[in-house]
Amino acid sequence: MERRRSFPDVLAGGIFVLIGGAFVVRSLGYELGTPLRMGPGYFPLLVGAILAALGLAIVLKGLVAGEVLSFGAIPWRAVTAIVLAVLFFGFFVRRLGFVPTSAVTALLTTLASSRVRPLVAAAVTVGLTIASTLIFVVGLQLRIPLWGPWLPF
Question: Which of 86, 81, 73 is nearest to 113 (CA)?
Answer without folding.
Answer: 81
